[in-house]
Fold this protein.
Amino acid sequence: MPAEKTWKKELEKLHAREKEAQKGGGQARLQKLREKGILTARERIDYILDKGSFVELNMLAEHQCHNFGMDKKKFAGDGVITGYGTIGGRKVFIYSEDVTVLGGSTGKTHGAKIHYILKLARENMVPVICLNASAGARIQEGMDNVYGITGMFYQNSLTSGVVPQIAAIMGACTGGAAYSAALCDFIVQVEKTSYVFITGPAVIKEVTGEEVSFEELGGAKVHSTKSGVVHLSARDDRHCLDLIKDLLNFLPQNNREKPARKACADSNEREVPELIDMVPIQMSKTYDMKQVIRTIVDEGDFFEIHAVFAMNMVVGFARMDGRVVGLVANNPRFMGGCLDINSSDKAARFIRTCDAFNIPIISLVDVPGFLPGLDQEHSGIIRHGAKMLYAWTEATVPKISCILRKMYGGAIPAMGVHQIGFDQVFAWPSAEMQMVGAEPSVKILYRRELEQAEDPAAYLEQKIEAYQELYLTPYHSASRSVIDAVIHPKDTRKKIISALSILAGKAESPRQFRKHGNIPL
């Protein structure tokens, strides 16, 4: 006769199963992580969520694989903790992969738990936080990995542009796990203790003969400076989770809402006369555009994205009069502020992210044009530069540009004028705007006259000065309504805030139906 059921026994069974699930791969493995200064999967959730807010889902799920001794390697939860909670009172869905359980590898059940969280986030219009530490596909499960890994890509892609998806690389993140993170809106990677790549050093050595370390192949420094895969790098686990919290403050819950406006003590009438000394009027002199940004935004608070990748372009979030804005700006301190392949990709991606989540965009312009050269042309600068043009045209959020010093050639539409869809365009009195600079224009327009002049050098100088005065000043552009106003630099902050205020209720006219456009990827 089986023992009679009692509430006490059944509740004891439940408690025992929950306690076992909370152990992950065992106390010894968890302790090894702690000794390295790494938070466990559950500790990460506890740290980032409001205390006591976490509700776990599918805690007792297990893999169903019986091959290769896997029937003896079952762990409740199957290596990923999933659920929901709040951050600063805001609802979020979250998952955290547990490297102590089968290396955090993704099998059918592990992947299904993540699919479910991504689907719930999309259906409930709530951001999702993805804490990744995975050895990739679980090879013991064979083609069941198609259900696990590929389903993650599918759900990431469907969720893209609906709710913010923020991924963190907090351990090894290899193979398919890397692509899931890449499909999110933002990636934060922990320095020195995390790596992300498709194929590891051993495979690379076997196939190509190249020898490379984990850090050189997929560390935070590589991905934040060279590949551009990572948007933010963090000193350690806690810093990583703090950055996610900070980033979330600039984002709305979903694509139907705007980011929360905050009360601001920084006057919207504040003048910024220091910009005159900060930005040299001589075009040959350089300066740091980040200083300009911090001068005009609320309380100097600028949350930069991709800070050490394509540094000739600056992008990031700030507030003006309490409203969240996205900044896209050339930085003359690097490469003279030229646009190149990487900076074009960086800007286009950021523009589309802002547009997806109803964040107005401000373009601060000081650009000599696109970077010339054989390498750029052969590597596809035309295709990459076109991404910016497409992104600006597609974006329906308020768009405001201010030309500080110069804007030439193909960079004119790439950095923002009315004809590419901008709502307001301002320029400083020192600004120069033209498709081609004065000297090359004069050499083309007056080629015969220069050949016949008694003193070609003096004649060239005279014509350059006349051409600059006629065509390169902002007043020429203002007379043709290319710009809305020539403004004093000290009024830059209040002019932009005024434009943001009038554009706050902007409603885009319906566009012709299409399934989707075909961005030049």
Summary: The chain is about 40% helix and 20% strand. Residues 216 and 222 are 7 Å apart (CA to CA). The longest strand covers residues 165-174.
